[in-house]
Design goal:
The protein has 257 residues and is mostly helical. The chain has one domain. The chain has 10 helices and no strands. The chain starts with a helix and ends in a 6-residue tail after the last helix. The mean pLDDT is 82.
Length: 257
């Protein structure tokens, strides 16, 4: 597994080094979209435009959404690409199995992509004047985010195995996640609060906002809920992916496009 991880890490680094314009373009586009929305909101509100820590919460939700999109691309987009190039079947015939290959590939890619996400976050903070905290315990909710994001990626990957083209469905997932991650659902009460704990990545987003935007201490109950949420969605995604793999092999469409 270690050998596979470093092989995928080397592969990802070579691709990023050979196509640097793609990396720079993604960072510029991601930052430009948020800054454009920020300027539009400030223009509409006029001189009274003051967001305070709400701006910090919005920044966290948007950057977190960007990270989730990176993770989803590492699995779902790669499956569609491998199907187009005719190399998808080779991954399923490897000694590691497709699930391990895609999971390790995602972890290797995230190792480098976290630097891109940090660049996006720092640039947005510089442009908007947002001030965020970066406590060491930040790593815990970040791990739960990656677990949940990989779970969603495997769910979309399962659909890609069976239907090959799921780009439009993926767009629906992306904007749905933007709503979940950008909205402070953790501030709700009653049934809405319980529902927020069941939605993917939402508990983790709430913890990140509490730590980085409001400077609160880590709540052990909330982080436990976030870990359970991440594990459940990761297990669900891998389970559905394995089920789709068996169906694709049974129908003889694994290597087709």
């Amino acid at each position: 597994m270690t050998e596979l991880f470093f092989a995928e890490l080397k592969r990802t680094w070579i691709l990023q080094r050979r196509y640097p314009i793609e990396v720079v373009g993604i960072i510029i586009v991601t930052v430009s979209i948020f800054y454009g929305l920020f300027l539009s909101a400030r223009y509409v509100a006029g001189a009274s435009f003051q967001l305070g820590d709400r701006l910090d919460s919005i920044v966290i939700g948007y950057v977190l959404w960007s990270l989730v999109l990176f993770v989803m691309g590492n699995v779902a987009n790669r499956i569609q690409y491998e199907a187009q190039t005719g190399t998808l079947e080779q991954l399923f015939l490897s000694q590691f199995g497709a699930v391990k290959v895609f999971l390790i590939r995602s972890l290797a890619a995230i190792t480098l992509q976290l630097a891109f996400v940090l660049s996006i976050l720092l640039t947005i903070m510089l442009l908007t004047g947002s001030r965020l905290d970066f406590p060491p315990v930040l790593i815990l909710p970040l791990i739960t985010v990656l677990m949940g994001a990989n779970g969603i990626a495997f769910i979309i990957g399962a659909l890609a195995l069976l239907f090959k083209q799921v780009s439009q469905l993926q767009v629906i997932f992306q904007f749905g996640l933007l709503f979940l991650l950008a909205t402070p659902i953790e501030a709700s009460t009653g049934f809405a609060r319980v529902l927020a704990s069941l939605l993917p990545i939402t508990p983790s987003a709430g913890i990140l906002r509490a730590l980085m935007a409001r400077g609160e201490n880590l709540n052990l109950t909330h982080i436990a809920i976030a870990f359970i949420n991440g594990v459940v969605y990761l297990a669900l995604g891998i389970g559905l992916f394995r089920l789709a793999e068996r169906q694709a092999k049974k129908r003889g469409i694994l290597g087709g496009y």
